[in-house]
Amino acid sequence: MNEKIFHLRRYYFSFLYFSFVYLALLILVLRNNVKPVETGFVEQLLVGITAVVPAYILFKRKTGYIFGKNTYMKLLVLGQLPLVLGTLLSLMASNYIYFFLSYPIFLIAFLLLLPTRKAVERENERA
Q1: Phi and psi angles of residue 34, each rounded to the nearest 5 degrees, phi first
Q2: What is the pLDDT of residues 62-79, one digit of tens each?
Q3: What is the rounded distance in angstroms from the CA atom of residue 74 to the CA atom of residue 79?
């Protein structure tokens, strides 16, 4: 059991720390060329749609076994989706607002994916 949790946590923290790459990319590309914030309906809609990701992860966690390697990797990639979209929208709009709006959504999704010993054992009993 400890071996499985170790591998899951290794994947978890590698994806979690990869989020800093997006911030570094924004800082390198934008630097001092930041424009004033002008949010449009489409951008707000896209950020709002990504807010469904934590709800989907919570639903999957409550209804099934998410700690299998393939399922867990897919959910980790899905958890990165708000951050990727926020980074792309921030690059297109030349400001940081979309990144900072999507970062809390990303953190909530990743808190739900945290592999704890109790959760993995409980999921093994359920499966």
Answers
A1: -85, 130
A2: 998 899 899 999 999 999
A3: 9
